[in-house]
């Protein structure tokens, strides 16, 4: 069983930055592919970014490419999402997710989910 706990959400003005963190339980964090998803009110959950087990490869949704950066620290069992140049439309609950075994960055089926953290961008 993998437990994921997100933190770092909050209220920020458009153009600002936030860094989300997701702490994972377990001693095999380095074997998980990790991803970030988000869900805005009235919309379906959508993929944001993914990172492979070593952290050497990443994949982004077009809507965040160039503005968001996903990274991980396997020694700390933590994955991050640095969000810059935030826009009003980035407002959503952000979820971190783990995929184990890993099926590749383009596979968006994840086994474990955190409880989410709210990000609100004011225009």
Walk me through this protein's architecture.
The chain is mainly β and about 120 residues long. It has no helices and eleven strands. The strands form two sheets. Strands 2, 4, 5, 6, 9, 10 and 11 form a seven-stranded mixed sheet that branches. Strands 1-3-8-7 form a four-stranded antiparallel sheet, with no helix packed on it. β7 and β8 form a beta hairpin. It is globular and about 40 Å long. The relative contact order is 0.32.
Task: Break the fold down into its secondary structure elements and pairings.
Elements: E1 4-7, E2 10-13, E3 18-24, E4 33-39, E5 46-51, E6 58-60, E7 68-73, E8 78-83, E9 92-99, E10 112-113, E11 117-122
Short description:
By secondary structure, the chain is mainly β. 0% of the residues lie in helices and 48% in strands.
Low-confidence stretches are: none
Shape: globular
Taken in chain order, the helices and strands follow as: EEEEEEEEEEE
Main pleated-sheet profile: 7 strands, mixed
What distance lies between the first and last C-alpha atoms, to the nearest angstrom?
Answer: 40 Å
Return the structural class. mainly beta
Put simply, the count of helices is 0
What's the average pLDDT? 96
Number of DSSP strand runs: 11
Note the main attributes of this structure.
123 residues, single chain, mainly beta, 0% helix, four-stranded antiparallel β-sheet, 48% strand, seven-stranded mixed β-sheet, 11 strands, globular
């Amino acid at each position: 069983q993998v437990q994921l706990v997100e933190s770092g959400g909050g209220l920020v003005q458009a153009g600002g930055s936030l860094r989300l963190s997701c702490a994972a339980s377990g001693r095999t964090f380095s074997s998980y592919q990790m991803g970030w998803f988000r869900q805005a009110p009235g919309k379906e959950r959508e993929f944001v970014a993914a990172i492979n087990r070593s952290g050497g490869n990443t994949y982004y949704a077009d809507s965040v490419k160039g503005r968001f950066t996903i990274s991980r620290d396997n020694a700390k069992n933590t994955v991050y999402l640095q969000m810059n140049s935030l826009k009003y439309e980035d407002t959503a609950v952000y979820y971190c997710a783990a995929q184990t075994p890993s099926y590749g960055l383009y596979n968006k089926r994840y086994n474990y989910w955190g409880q989410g953290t709210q990000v609100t961008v004011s225009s």
